[in-house]
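Q: Structure tokens for this one, please.
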Amino acid sequence: MFFYLFIIFIIIQRLTELAIARKNERWMKAKGAVEFGSGHYPIMVLLHSAFIITLIFEVLYFQRELSRFWFLLLVGFLFTQAMRIWALRSLGPYWNTKIIVLPGAKVVKKGPYQFIKHPNYVIVALEIILIPMLFNAYTTAVLFTMLNIMILSVRIPAEERALTTWTGYDTELEGHRRFLPVLKGGKNPSS
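A: Here is the predicted structure, written as tokens:
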């Protein structure tokens, strides 16, 4: 029963995020924003949809049980959800599932973005590991971690090129790392 409720939560969350992204896309494009990386976007959508389908298949077909470490994994998942909300709220109307850049926009350096360039990608990567592990679906965890690395190797450079071309991204976030935080007192001139 927990598995079904969990999957329903994930699906509702993802659909809600897509609705927010569409609303933000309309707002940004009305202000003159430009979309980049549209060629790989359908692959990302397919990957995230296939992740949920594969997880459901692996858990049901192989009768995977809740992990004996479920409590720790659930705490990790809840942490990623708090971080997801923090990242989404920090970007506000600039948050999107697509690469959409408003030329000349001020670079967001608040919330988790004051510490790392791509917190949302870190969150998604952790979810792709934590969610299947919660139900002992190791094949899904490994397979989609590899696929996620492959798509992010295309996505992140495309996003950084777009942001560098149309905003002050490269100079504003100089010293920030892509995935690991630079804490205050470290090489983080914009903290």
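A few notes: Confidence is low (pLDDT under 50) at residues 186-191. The first strand starts at residue 34 and ends at 36.
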